[in-house]
Amino acid sequence: MTSLSDARPLDTVADFPAIPAGWAYLDTAATAQKPQAVIDAIARGYAQDYATVHRGVYQRSADMTVAYEAVRRRVAGFIGAQADEIVFVRGATEGINLVAQCWAGTQLRAGDRILLSALEHHSNIVPWQMVAERVGAAIDVVPLTPDHRIDLDAMEQMLRPEHKLVALAHVSNVLGSVLDARRAADLAHRVGAKILIDGCQAVPRLPVDVVKLNADYYVFSAHKLYGPTGIGVLWARAELLDAMPPYQGGGSMIDRVTFERTTYAPPPTRFEAGTPHIVGVLGLDAAIDYVETIGLERIHAHEAALVHRARAGLSGLNSVRLFGPDDSAGIVSFAVEGVHPHDIGTILDEGQVAIRAGHHCAQPLMSLLGVPATARASFGVYNSPADVDALVRGIERVTRIFG
Ligand SMILES: Cc1ncc(COP(=O)(O)O)c(C=O)c1O
Fold first, then answer.
1. pTM for this one?
2. 202: which of 78, 213, 233, 270 lies 20 to 30 Å off by Cα?
3. Measured in angstroms, how far is the CA atom of residue 151 from the centroid of ligand 1?
């Protein structure tokens, strides 16, 4: 991986028409801004090439089907998978719900256990609670290390044969801590559990190879990867997809329908009921093109340099408390003593700095940190050291205003 000292500013901000000069957009972990190439691909999809997929006998539809299925292969290549293991979903949330309903909902029994971590996003908590309640399974929670990583030594001690599933964030959306996903997968497999990795915050900032990670399921959302909303990816090992019943019923996912009996298409089609988000898939393709052209190793080094600068600048202010490890990936959460994060966000906004303030859909983590909310700055390819300096100046102003 490129080292911090190799990091050069990427100078990509001109690719992003929605970022005006002087605006520091530091909320990429919520959703990334879109490069012109993605906007163009979406516009072309609707304005020039538009037609349905998988059904039309006319040439335009056949061409669109070819383009749509080519993206499946593209996504597979992007994460080291096979094309028929890629299911297009609405986003990471839907991907996790699909696995919870179709795999856990049919495989787990009363007395089985699911292992999550203390830093998970609600999307990687609530679907498991829903299925656990239905089947009578229990949920255990892996604690964090003092520097706010998922404590894999503790996980090793906790894992028992009753654990049938482990579901962990590859990169925390609050703390930026990076999971040693390979070790987590090996530990899970040692007791016979499957592992789902929530890659929402990892895929935009780290090279990912699901086979090298030894994962069973991996999910991510296109909109955090500079692509459109409403489209995401579930990857699962082929044998797991083969064994899973469908998620939703409808058009496309069938083999043959009669009133007596319906048979289903093989995966991944079995899991894609209804007309898909055709142009969203084309937008995802352009987004992958965009990040691959820059290179994920460069993106990672660029964001690491920004995190380093932010943590150094903020830690120099004595009322600031930083969360997460020093080597967090692209995300820095913090609190300013005596100031609510919403006030921090409002004051920063006056200085053209956009951060997120809130619980970040991780209320159990907020309880663990002992705060109702945090302020969070998260970086993307378009950010520069000047954006970080604007953040630090804004926090200095916050501390002056609140004395
Ligand atoms: C770590 C993590 N997991 C899951 C999600 C849910 O993603 P989406 O809302 O795109 O489905 C998010 C979004 O914030 C996230 O950061």
1. 0.97
2. 270
3. 21
Q: Which residue has the tokens 């972990």?
A: 29
The catalytic residue among 135, 361, 366, 371 is: 361
**Contacts (Cβ under 8 Å, ≥6 apart) of 371:** 335
C-beta separation of 323 from 174 below 8 A: yes
379: phi then psi, degrees, rounded to nearest 5: -110, 160
- The verdict on whether 200 is a catalytic residue reads no
Pairing mode of beta strands 113-117, 138-142: parallel
Q: Which helix (H) or strand (E) holds 336?
A: strand 331-336
- In this predicted model, what pLDDT tens digit does every residue of 182-223 receive, in sequence order? 999 999 999 999 999 999 999 999 999 999 999 999 999 999
To which residue do tokens 């909902």 refer? Answer: 105
Pocket of ligand 1 (CB under 6 A): 91-93, 121, 123-124, 169, 173, 198, 200-201, 221, 361
Q: How many CB atoms lie within 10 A of CB 309?
A: 18
pLDDT in tens, 122-167: 999 999 999 999 999 999 999 999 999 999 999 999 999 999 999 9
